[in-house]
Amino acid sequence: MNQTNPSNKLRIQPLVLVTVAGLLAALVAIFIFKVSVGLVINYGLIGAMILSHFWMHAGHTGHDGHQEQAPLSKTGDQLNPVPVENERKHGCH
User: Fold this and answer.
1) Which of 25, 59, 76, 83 is most enclosed, with most CB atoms within 10 A?
2) 29: domain range?
3) Residue 8 located in a structural domain
4) pTM of the full structure
């Protein structure tokens, strides 16, 4: 789909499309397949968590700029932490 085409006057955001699709699926599950509302809410929240994880990682899809962390080295009985310059400064881990 080419979104740079000037004839595309109405562009619906992907988040809106996913939300509407989720709501329609929930309504179909409740009214047609007679699934309990609590179960639909539980699975909807699980789905929202999975999708939000993809959204969290959208900013760093190319992992070229990541530095690998050096393993902890053992000196005597004490573990040395990873140097500050090797710590990651983005994402959830």
Assistant:
1) 25
2) 13-57
3) no
4) 0.55
